[in-house]
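Retro notes
What went well: the complex prediction finally ran end to end.
Inputs used:
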Amino acid sequence: MSKPSYIQQSLFRMWALAKFELIRLFLTKRGMLAILAFITTWFLILYYPVNSAVTIVASDGFKGMAEDTFGILGLSALLQWQVAEFTIYWLIALYSFPIFALGASSDQTCADRTRGTLRFISLRATRNEIIFGRFIGQVLIIAILILLTLLATTTMAWLRESALGVPALLKASDLFVQLIIVVLPFIALTSFFNSFLRSAKLTSVVTLLFFGLGALFISLISYNLSIAHYLNYIFPGVQLSDIVGQDKLTLVHYSIPLIQTGCYLALASIFMKRSAL
Amino acid sequence: MITSTNNSPLIKVSQLSKSFGTKQVLENVDFEIVKGEPVALVGPNGAGKTTLFSLICGYIQPSAGQISILGHQVGSAATFGKLAALPQDAQLDPRFSIAHQLNFYGQLQGFNKKKSQFEAERTLELVGLKEVLNEKPDSLSHGMRKRVTIAQALIGTPEIVMLDEATAGLDPIHARQIRQLVASLSAETTFILSSHDLSELERLCQQVLFLEQGVLRQHQNVSNDGLSQSQPTFITLRMAHTIPQFEQSLLAIEQVASVTQTQDKEYLLKINPSSALTLAFNTELLPIDIQILQLCHDNKWIYRQLINGKTLENQLFN
């Protein structure tokens, strides 16, 4: 058998690193507790807000009020969805998964760097492989969790009305792709912070300051220099308000998070190469 | 500089400097290490040993100069599985079993699942800890954890293994076991050992890199001062008790040129280089080491150790 090429070996190492992240979440005690908390939270979300809202949205008495409310918020297109469960699911998932992704991926390399474990790994994988392997691992984790919530919502819709099974599955696959694209830059941002910070707590604090003070700082600059508002494109999720209504979506809405992801991973790579392990 | 003309160097360091802010930790360090006996990296605290170690492993970037590992750049994928290390104070992940982590490292080195499991068991057996395979690191003592991290450095039988203070914190039995392990694996792996225990390094290493204030003071063979020659130029004698006028008694032996007390009850004897010639003309004259032993025997002086050459400590500090 011929020796695998450099690219094959590199992909194999990245996959090994990504797999380790999956095991960290799904097969360790702490990871299992996190999943249990996640499932409980989403059970409550699906059982109360989603389930109740579906009844309201679907009832004739409240339909007019819902149309007025959604119209004011620019969300009218959501009411056209055949599967009402996904209307409420989308509104909650679009904003909760990015926040969840920030928290869940806050420790990609920090703890390993502080403990010295990264020193063992760096003699067996390049720094880029470590960054990308861990990033892929986190994306897979979030993807699995998104998938679980989508399947649960699909099941709810199907149980309410069996004819909704297929449309629900089609909508679920559409939302899955959209949600993954939405969360990518958030995970890449924490990959970047992890390339130089030494703890998950510090990463969370810096992330909070980045979104809080960063937005304030750009607002102040934009007051005197209008062109500075383009700086808002450094923030993952900048396109969320445009896509929440699912109306007039263009390629730009998908390309912004993908470009942000590329930029943050490139920065993570540069910083990781220079940082001390 | 010790190099072998027929061996390409495993590690080549050229004009290596490292500064942290305004503090220069390493200054124009140059050396080559070829395949062979273990190499000792010694020096006082703050001499730059761990910095040099970290630079060779690619944990930090040099301020100037170059390092080549097996002809490749530091951190190059070509060195994976060939250069391994036990960095000082580095720990395994407490959330995973030792088997799981060693398997993971094996897989990163390109082994399949079966081979990785075999390597995990083999390396743990080498450090005498096969029974902790399914334990988590937190359930082990400090010494056991250290031995497990030594095991990770041995996965896949790398060409170079760097051990930073490998026996620090180990009890004497296990420290001895690690020394025996290093000695037994030296045929296939070149070890670079950093330690403050000079007697340990003396037993294991034939080459020494001595760093002082960031400068490489010496790079030499431990055996330079005695063992390589048929007639020693230096002899170190350790006595059990302090003996009055001992130096004078030793100087009475014809070939002894000078005697220096290096430590309490330890003497360094300089042997006259012409003694070989004297021995050739006077066939009844006993070899110098036998004469010293005879002197001790005749006077009922108890000696502890007779060392052919200088101790590593005396080579470096006297």
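What we learned: Chain A touches chain B at residues 4, 6, 9-10, 12-13, 16-17, 20, 23-24, 28-30, 112, 115-117, 119-127, 274, 276-277 (CB under 8 Å).
What to try next: split runs per interface for comparison.
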